[in-house]
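Subject: complex prediction, re-run

Hi both,

The earlier run crashed halfway through, so I resubmitted it with identical inputs.
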Amino acid sequence: MMQPLIFFTILFSFIATGCNNSPAKQSNSVNMDSNKKVHPVFSKTDTAKVDISNEEWKRSCRQMYNIAREKGTERAFTGKFWDHKEGGTYYCAACGNPLFNSNGKFDSNCGWPSFFEPISKSSIIYAPDNTYGMKRTEVMCGKCRSHLGHVFDDGPPPTGLRYCINSVILDFEKAAEAKEKFDKKQ
Ligand SMILES: [Zn+2]
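This time it finished cleanly. Structure:
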């Protein structure tokens, strides 16, 4: 039987780090590896549509499950990307689908990362959402159908749209890191 002290230490480190599997790597900068490879289907190069089974979801991070599958919403100003300004690409954290570029991101001050356009039309799937007595449009990942957030029509030009997205379901790669990987392949 596990010693209570050890149990609470493990429990506490889990709570303190959330989805991050490596507490030792925790730092003040945005952790790029926290959500990667949570599912076997995670791939930034394979664009085929994927189905993540409920069994796989149960093994992944509880917070991501709540957002992606139960259509939850993270608390405003708590996610890691609402005020994130680095140049790069935002991927679906569940499947690796490229969703948004940093040059499509803007400062909405609403507490969630906000974008005025996705990377491509096929990045996103749209669905009407009439829950909570509101008429909203839900946005989902075009590859794995994970819930991402909602899109509103009060965004800046040129689209006039505001894609209001949960940080938990985003995985960010800096432009510089992506370039480095690309150069290595040449
Ligand atoms: Zn996805």
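The radius of gyration is 17 Å.

- K.
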